[in-house]
Amino acid sequence: MHELGITQNIVAIVTEHAGGKKVRRIVLEIGKLSAIMPDAVQFCFDICTQDTVLAGAILEIREISGLAQCQQCGAEIVLDKPFGICKCGSVQLNLITGEELKIKEIEIEEICV
Ligand SMILES: [Zn+2]
């Protein structure tokens, strides 16, 4: 399960960013073609964040659809796999979106003095 390593990385980045403050919410973007299972990330997140500043934080995962452009005719094609075929018959596709793994937002708890 490579999601564990990915989640540990995310937790490390967010922890550093938070600088000791408590993290309330994280928004992750995961492309549908990235072969990362959102459910597995969610599961690993709950385990990885125990006893960290991320404990109890909400993990929001946004799935990004795969989109490619045909090199032959320029048409845009929605993909659910990292390959496909255009209506014109070409399999020469440039992936535009769908492979990303991005931390989109980090919400840190404001400490009122
Ligand atoms: Zn085409």
UniProtKB/TrEMBL annotation:
Annotated Gene3D superfamilies: 3.30.2320.80
UniProt keyword annotations, A-Z: Metal-binding, Nickel, Zinc
Secretion signal span: none
Residues binding Zn(2+), per UniProt: C70, C73, C86, C88
GO terms classed as biological process: protein maturation
GO MF terms, alphabetically ordered: nickel cation binding; zinc ion binding
Binding site for Ni(2+): H2
Summary of the function given for this chain in its UniProt record: Involved in the maturation of [NiFe] hydrogenases. Required for nickel insertion into the metal center of the hydrogenase.
Family per similarity comment: Belongs to the HypA/HybF family.
Annotated protein name in UniProt: Hydrogenase maturation factor HypA
Organism: Dendronalium phyllosphericum CENA369
Gene name of the encoded protein: hypA
